[in-house]
Amino acid sequence: MSAPTYQETIAALQRYWADYGCVVMQPYHTEVAAGTMNPATFLRCLGPQPWKTAYVEPSIRPLDGRYGENPFRFQHYFQYQVVLKPAPENVLDVYFGSLEAIGIDLRKHDVRLVEDDWEQPTLGAWGLGWEVWCDGMEITQWTYFQQLGGLELDLVPAEMTYGLERLTMFLQGKRTAFDLEWAPGVTWGEVYRESERQWSIYNFEKAPIDVLTRRFGEHEEECKALVEERLPLPAYDQVLKCSHTFNLLDARGALSATERAAYIGRVRNLARSVAQLYVEMETNGDAAL
Amino acid sequence: MATLLFEIGCEELPAWACREAEVQLPGLCERELGRRPDELLLGPRRLALLVRDLPERSPDEWVKGPPEHMREQAAEGFARKQGVAVADLEVREGFFGVTRPGGPVAEALPGRLDAIVQGLTFSKSMVWEAGGLRFARPVRWRLAKLDAADIAGDGASYGHRFTHGRVEVPEAETYAEKLRAAGVEPDQAARRSAIVGGLDAIGGWSDPAAVLEEVVFLVESPVVLAGSFDERFLQLPRRVVETAMQSHQRYFPLEGARFAFVANGGDPETVVAGNEQVLEGRLEDASFTFERDVAKGIEVLAEEAGRITFVAGAGTFADKTARLVALAEALGGGEASLEAARLAKADQAAELVREFPDLEGHIGAEYARLAGFPEAVCAAIDEQYLPEFAGGPLPSTEPGRVLAAAEKVDNLTVAFALGQRPSGSRDPYGLRRAAIGLCRLALEGGLRIDLHQLVDLDQRLLLGGGVELEQDPGPVFDFVVERFEGLLDIPVEYVRAARHAWISDLAGRARLAEWLAALGEEIEPLHTAYTRASKIVGDVALDTPARDDLLTEPAELELQDTVGRAWPEIKGSLDALDFDDAFRAASKIPPVVDRFFDEVMVMAEDESIRENRLRLLTDVKATLGHFGDLAQIPR
After folding, report:
1. What distances in angstroms separate CA B257 from CA B53, B275, B282, B553, one per listed residue?
2. How far is B172 from chain A (nearest CA, A)?
3. What ipTM was estimated for this complex?
4. Where does the pLDDT of residue A168 fall: very low under 50, low under 70, confident under 90, or very high at 90 and above?
5. What digits encode the pLDDT tens for the residues B23-33?
6. Does the CB of B35 have a partner CB in chain A at under 8 Å?
7. Which of A157, A254, B113, B231 sits a CA distance of 20 to 30 A from B291?
């Protein structure tokens, strides 16, 4: 049996989690550094409503770009994100079932859970969990959320974030992401390598620092105004835009260590105020979520 | 008598959580069951304990009531509270009481075992159901057997996660045997020896980052395997390769381009191939980074690092480098030390240091080697952060010791200047370790460290760089010298006394403290003269010396003369760290002080004479005070 292509693996995960009962969402429409930041995870994990979802998310991390020269580092790659809220008692078995669904024989390989705690300071979020190793390759970041936006959670969600490139490298036995077979006869490198080169130039050399600095302030103000207007969903998009703008400034080397900490604090404060408003509206019935 | 088995089934626990449970379980078991466990079997998916010879009935309990002579007032109330008639009360040793018969231990156990689970606490814990139990990771099942009887759970445990499912455990004593048949070695000591045995069989293994103790708790079914990687990765600094293996993958480096690791099952050939691919990927990634750094070279990296902020308020790494060079020079460093100081921070601009932050210094040293710098320079760059922990090894080379001392003086001075001195247990910049390092570099490394002068120099350089600070080296100095209190094997009073001595050399102060402690009773005359003079002078600061024309009494003239002759001798001998010689010179003073107090009235009516005599005593205090604040030493 030949190894599944990149797109077949994604399709198999979509099928498995749809069958489990997840709402299969689509990638969010603005840049996020991780699938966790998509409101389908960050906001839906707040409040008392159960929620199950699965989706592909492009992870945009300007600082990690390497001009398409290093086949292990990218400023744009893909995660497969699953959230089960609350986490069922057999949640690990359900997760391991997904590995079998994409063709991993759990008896043939050495699959292990190795302690790895997760923290996202810009979102005031943390959780405990593992990285899942398959023959030493980290294929999933696995987390029981404990706090989001600085808030305790009514229901404890399990988040499973599969690194799609590493996972398919493992499945296809490929040494680099560039060599992955995306579709029959088409490699990952053919699809994205030039994009890595151009975006790295933009992120590291061309992104206009003055404009970005100004934009950060504008997004921040808009977020605050939208919180005043009691519109947490649009307000949250402004948090994401602030976060991405900060990441670009960071990649441009425009921030000293002290400034970095200050920017992170500003994004965290926004995330916190949006999270509080969201929970308040969901709890008192002001929003039909 | 019966055997109790209690197993707490968990999702994969971190190794540290298993060890924290190992420490707490015996005490909790004793508190709840009155017995310490005979065996603790701990692993990633289960914490289990066995108690043998547990009495099947809990013992009768004597509930002591009021004394017999209180029958009138108290007996009836006590009986009512215990639910018995007054006539049923027994008397033992003059007290009323009732005997509560013990019961089958099985009845009390569920509550007791629950209390054990509730009683475990972890340094980091979580909930998996809002408002539920806090534990290191979710608890998914409990199994408790008293011999063959089910106390908690349904009589079953779970075997290896992927090869065996539910495992019936018919009797407490068969627990380990049943688990072994289901692919799980529950005994951590057995896993450890299996792993070490496997590694020994392969041979030539090492564990520089000490991952073995964690690996024991990462597997339930240990299989030791070996793999290899492409020899071209041996061009990477060895420690980069080892760190990639150990901190990321928990592998054990073997000689050459090979490694060993411990799997938890799977088909060996498949598992080895997968791990080889993962390691090569990591090494390939590190090679990309390494080659980019090397293409730039250490001089370019040093320039780039110069533009990076060291600490907000204390300038860039270029500023830091200038301070290190000046400090190395003041420490008597030679050419190699100065060159090493100039290049010490170059690797702060290296991409490889961003990937392997623990290897700062080492990576810079490797890049200096590749650029052809002399080994003395490279070794010093490598050793600048030593000791890594309070008792860790010191730099092995003289330039390394000089650079390490300069680095610590600057970190301490900068932190204190910016108001970031450690408080309580908060010491985010590791300043206590830095101060201990300085003390040890002086004591064991034989480095001559004039701390006042160095801190003063560093502060002037910081001030030149626009940092606003109080120019007082005192707090840094005191903070460092205080570390001797824990380092020297003498009562702290001697260290505290020596802190105020007039000795510029840091190690000299420690030697003086030890010398004072060894002096014993012989210090008496000096101590008495010093404290008598101190008491009268108090804290009043007076200019010395006393004016000759106001001295009238022979005893005060003699004192003036003796002190005047003694002090240059004392100072000279102390500077040369010849304490015995200094002591001989100082010993001339106490008899003259005694005569002075016998014959001279300090508090004379004439104010100018009185003040002059106080000046004279201030001089006595200061001269004897070259040995430190002797009043700190209890007599």
Report:
1. 53, 14, 14, 87
2. 26
3. 0.93
4. very high
5. 999 999 988 88
6. no
7. A254
